[in-house]
Amino acid sequence: MSENLTHTYEGLFLLPQSAGTDLGAASEHVQELLTKNGAEIVSFSKWEERRLAYEIKGNKRGVYFLSYFSIAADQMAALDRACGLSETLLRFLITRADQIDAMEMESTEGRDSLKEEIAQRALQAETGTTDAGIRATTRSDREIAETATQEADEAPSPDAPAQAIAPEAPAQEVPAEGDADEAVATTDA
């Protein structure tokens, strides 16, 4: 009587920064590891690219992918082994996530935004564009880039007349050396 228990897990996968140049292949690799070992992916997203606290296999920066998935308990060992044998992954961490509800897991879904970023990077590679909006990798980065672009558009042009400069405040008078002794009062009690 072998009962096949399925649990929900959260997986964080770290790949080298070089994987960021081909995000499509990197994300497919992680998703393939999961699906080949019997996992059903609930949500998958690129978490972020960041500097590592210490070098891992000569890499100072890395790309993180976050995934929630369901897998049978008896297949978890095979997934763990496949992740450990992967030459592409630098590190991985898989924990049970039964306490997290389905809505919260689905809210982290980022496959669509990942596809958009892959398309933007492909466009950048084709055209050689260095637009800040294309370089932005996360939603917050894109929002910051859009704000910076709007502020740059609203800034006065260099040909515009300079604004009046406020007059300088009058300098304070410094007492002469002889006056300084008089200003300090000493009391002998």
Jot down its keywords.
189 residues, alpha+beta, 2 domains, four-stranded antiparallel sheet, 25% strand, globular
Verbal overview:
The protein has 189 residues and is α+β, with helices and mostly antiparallel strands. The chain has two domains: 104 residues, 2-Layer Sandwich (Alpha-Beta Plaits); 35 residues, no CATH class. 39% of the residues lie in helices and 25% in strands. A four-stranded antiparallel β-sheet has the order 2-3-1-4. Strand 2 and strand 3 form a beta hairpin. The C terminus is likely disordered.
Q: What are the SSEs and their pairings?
A:
Blueprint: E1 6-16, H1 23-36, E2 40-56, E3 59-72, H2 76-85, E4 91-96, H3 102-107, H4 111-127, H5 132-135, H6 139-154, H7 177-183
Antiparallel strand pairs: 1-3, 1-4, 2-3
Outline of the structure:
The protein is of the alpha+beta class. The chain is 39% helix and 25% strand.
Order of helices and strands: EHEEHEHHHHH
Mean pLDDT over the residues: 77
CATH class of the largest domain: Alpha Beta
Structural class: alpha+beta
In the residues, how many domains can be counted? 2
Distance between the termini: 100 Å
